[in-house]
Amino acid sequence: MTPGAAILETNVHGKAQPLGGYEVLLCVTGGIASYKSAELASRLIQDGSAVTVAMTDAARRFVCPLTFQSISRRRVYTSLWRAGEDYSCRHISLTELADLMIIAPATANIIGKMAAGIADDLVSTLVLSAAGACPILIGPAMNTRMWNAQAVRANVEKLTAWGITVVGPDEGYLACGAVGPGRMAEPAEIFQTATELLLRNPPKRQP
Ligand SMILES: Cc1cc2nc3c(=O)[nH]c(=O)nc-3n(C[C@H](O)[C@H](O)[C@H](O)COP(=O)(O)O)c2cc1C
């Protein structure tokens, strides 16, 4: 039996909660596909996972934090510099609590920062603090020419070699009107891979 599949709770509606007890840290970066991450958050929550959302400044230009706050029923983190009420260092504590960090959509920018070890905002700092704390899954999304750029290809190869799970991108119609690779993988596909990664281990937080 998969370790995390031992407890199959149900919610008040009788729906199975295979992800009960798990904590997902969902980081949203600045691409058009960021609206799709609201559906991903909802899928995770419907299956019992708790979801905490962190957003970059660019992501907030596309989707309002209130959307994720309403879905996750939790505060949304948008800055390194706002102290929590408990004064803990969120850039470290959020990954300590998380069973999985998902970055979706993952922009060319965050992929580049991850490959270079740059930590100049909350999401990129969380990436570094995930080392040894939780696995990372990314769902890249960008224009086809950006996806094909040598720098992006090399960065994605690097992340894959480091054990980061990359889901997508899909091929198809892009918001810029082009057709080709670069569409963020569907939330259902990212959800499926996230579930597999989560269920490899029991939740960190035991009931
Ligand atoms: C309308 C618009 C759409 C964009 N879509 C994408 C995208 O899908 N993927 C991407 O990598 N960058 C996209 N960008 C560029 C990023 O928003 C930009 O590189 C930004 O610095 C990313 O910051 P972040 O990685 O901190 O969120 C877009 C920019 C604009 C203005």
Task: Summarize it.
It is built from nine helices and nine strands.
Question: Your description of this structure?
Answer:
With 207 residues, this protein is an alpha/beta fold. It has one domain: Rossmann fold, CATH 3.40.50.1950. It has helices at residues 36-46, 59-62, 65-72, 90-97, 108-116, 122-129, 144-148, 150-161, 187-199, and strands spanning 9-10, 16-17, 23-28, 50-55, 100-106, 136-140, 165-166, 170-173, 179-183. The chain has a five-stranded parallel β-sheet with strand order 4-3-5-6-7, sandwiched between helices. A two-stranded antiparallel ribbon has the order 1-2. Helix 1 (36-46) runs parallel beside helix 3 (65-72). It is globular, with a radius of gyration of 16 Å. It starts with 8 loop residues before the first strand and ends in an 8-residue tail after the last helix. Mean pLDDT is 91; it is low at 1-6.
List the main descriptive attributes of the protein structure presented here:
207 residues, alpha/beta, Rossmann fold, five-stranded parallel sheet, 9 helices, disordered N terminus, binds flavin mononucleotide
